[in-house]
From TrEMBL:
Keywords, alphabetical: ATP-binding, Nucleotide-binding, Transport
Pfam families, alphabetized: ABC_tran (PF00005)
Protein name: ABC transporter ATP-binding protein
Record-linked CDD domains: ABC_MJ0796_LolCDE_FtsE (cd03255)
Length: 227
């Protein structure tokens, strides 16, 4: 039995907009197990980012329950949620979100410096993360000196430096040309082959076709399709 990382049961997210209610996600039910490689697909506005925010407990559901490693997220305090998130979840975004004044190495180290007690092996972790995305020889560069694909590699290294239980990537290839997108997809594939659990949002059916599991989101409703 693979070990369970995330479980959604009856999860909905509604936003009140004056008189109206927007249902961004409706009755989501699925399990993410260790080692899963999942694509979330759907048109713009279908609820993909809403789902990713819930999976990383950056936001709370209106209805239903999210379990992380078998425990309900809703019972944690804000601080408790932030602690679990920092230790166990790595985020990658479309816009890379690197700090331009810091070197590549310092950007990758950043999540460790938020830790009140940085790990004793912080230096090794940073070098390991840089090596895992093939950016060791650019460690002293600044983001502005890198291509889009290289910046996304650095952002992935930053997400990996805490050795998270799960990697959540929201349209990580959305700002990249198709050739560069393919190389970033290959990097995610390698990370998954090493055992990393990955959930990736894309609106490219080509990219999604490489995933073992595909969750299609349409108007907030999720339908699962297997490879
Ligand atoms: N903070 C918010 N307040 C109100 N409506 C929102 C908010 N965030 C998202 N929505 C709405 O929820 C729906 C899903 O949005 P989103 O999850 O961002 O879609 P996607 O990432 O698939 O493009 C959209 O109709 C969007 O307008
Ligand atoms: Mg989105």
């Amino acid at each position: 039995m693979p070990s369970e990382v995330l479980r959604l049961s009856g999860v909905s997210k509604r936003y009140r907009m004056g008189e109206n209610t927007v249902t961004a996600l409706a009755d989501a039910n699925f399990v993410i197990n260790e080692g899963d490689f999942v694509a979330i697909l759907g048109p713009s506005g279908s609820g993909k980012s809403t789902l990713m925010h819930l999976l990383g407990f950056l936001d709370s559901p209106t209805e239903g329950e999210i379990l992380f490693e078998g425990k309900p997220v809703s019972v944690l305090t804000e601080t408790g949620r932030a602690r679990v998130r920092a230790a166990k979840i790595g985020f990658v975004f479309q816009a890379f979100n690197l700090l331009p004044r810091l070197t590549v190495r310092a950007n990758v180290r950043l999540p460790l410096s938020y830790n009140p007690e940085p790990p004793a092996d912080a230096d090794e972790r940073v070098e390991r993360a840089l090596a895992s995305v093939g950016m060791t020889d650019r460690a002293h560069h600044r983001p502005g000196q890198l291509s889009g694909g290289q910046r996304q590699r650095v952002a992935i290294a930053r997400a990996l430096v805490n050795e998270p239980r799960i990697l959540l990537a929201d349209e990580p290839t959305g700002n990249l040309d198709s050739h560069t997108a393919a190389s970033i997809l290959n990097l995610f594939k390698e990370l998954n082959a090493q055992g990393r659990t990955i959930i990736l949002v894309t609106h490219s059916p080509e990219i999604a076709s490489h995933f073992k599991r595909r969750l299609h989101v349409l108007d907030g409703r999720i339908e699962e399709r297997f490879a």
